């Protein structure tokens, strides 16, 4: 009997040339990373004095780590200047979850049992904000997030702790490997900058700072320096009341200061920052996108800041029209033949009409759902009657429907689910123009109901191999075609033109879940909006297959898109509406 040869370990020749601390300690670090046996510690602490080469060693390892499955680094989060929240936002982004709170991040990692290799440089330099508060101390990040991360059974980590003693107490009860790089610097130490950062910021003739022209160091550390100034209260207030600094400054430093209730802040700024900071902490967003995001976050809580940012936001490809951080919405649908009004459902089962200009409830729905119904999806027909999908997978027709179409659809799916629970409805969508209703089920099937021919039953196809999470459709009367769009728990988005067979491959597949979809035929052609659970929105221009990614401020559970490119985003943490510039969105 022959046995398969053991897979070869990583080859050090695939890494950059050994030099400095990497020459002395690189082989040992690589040996630890390559050994995934249960007897080997899952955590490697890199210790040493400032300037001894710790960061150079970690950089060397990271540059070659992707070449072998045992050494692949799934996330590398620079801890310098990080709060617990900011560390969690960045780690969540790198792992494909989007920016999450520490608690939600840990919950996701408990469920996601894939192995995790984590690289944490400069843990001993973490912390931000007023020095007398816990967020300024590295130990806070260790206690609140890092130790719970390291104790997850699938986590392996390389953590740079310097000569701080961080994680020493934890290491007494856990199995840890230690690399001591050295007690002395390997060369001359760079002196920390001492220049007055505010002096480096260009100003207008009347003395106002021009933060868009400021050096990066000034943007990043101006607030940190202000906390240490003799007149710190005045210096900090000057920055927190400067909209330009809020737009261009360090979102993490601002978050650290606003967490201190002793520091005065403009009305509503703390609420605005809690909403915006997770996305603003992403350094990949350009200034125009930052302005649009901050404007959207400020609309519902800080009107003065929103007014200042409006001209900048209007120059971007999306601009917030209204925001309601107090709204909790589980489902949305456009009102047929209306002026942009929306039906909106809340967790208690109430369905109301929303004013498209303000997002405020203007009236109860003319047809109220049964008291026990908790709508998670709404389809609206041209006569105003509603078909509600509840959280239990039941379809409820509501309103005066003399044709009996909605009753027929609900009965059909109810009877099918009784016979076979795997075909229980899980998503519902509509086309306002044609009256077509589309239903997705737990088995991955999509059912298209033509209002004019409902008596023949739906056209159905098995589009996915997992439960459907979102569906919508668009009818094109000029050519008689109907385009169905669907998404499922397998992370796929598919298109099906119902007069032909479904496309053999998905339009998109990601390691994330679609939470809602909406489509409309806009002045610039058909557009599909897809909300994902990693806090991103994908806007597809269907005629050209171009896609634009937009950051989401709140977890999205419901979308509505109107023909005039008005997009409403809603979920458990609030709702807001965007005006999309579809003429420039995909440039």
UniProtKB/TrEMBL annotation:
Q: Which SMART domains match?
A: WD40
Where the WD repeats fall, as residue ranges, is 471-497
Any Pfam family hit: WD40
Print the keywords alphabetically.
WD repeat
Domain of life from the UniProt record = Bacteria
UniProt key word Transmembrane helix:
no
Record-linked InterPro entries: WD40/YVTN_repeat-like_dom_sf, WD40_rpt
- Protein name listed in UniProt: Uncharacterized protein
Q: Which organism is it from?
A: Streptomyces gilvosporeus
